[in-house]
Amino acid sequence: MRTRTILAFVSMAAAVILGCRSLPPSKPESQFTAQEVRGQQVYKAYCARCHYATNTHSLHGPGLQAITKVRAMPSGAPPTDERMTAVILRGRNMMPATQLSDDQLSDLLAYLKTL
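User: That's the sequence. What structure does it adopt?
Assistant: Structure tokens below.
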């Protein structure tokens, strides 16, 4: 009986450890390209009031750390450029639409990939 209890505990602990993978780190700002720097400026102007960049905690919207490196965004959709573009430009649920030029959008997407 004791062996079964220990095996069950070890199995549960392994499942928890494997299921709780940490997110990949953000790219250091010192390594940003010019486009990523411009994208960070777009983020600060349009996104920072509602989204944290370097963690997944909610401000008014979800945190964005590793948003392009996970299997699915908080909405459940994959984090493709097309899907992120649609959410940014059209809005979704509580998130309002954000009017950006093509260059601003391209720069912002480049920055989001650094997170």
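The CA atoms of residues 10 and 16 lie 10 Å apart.
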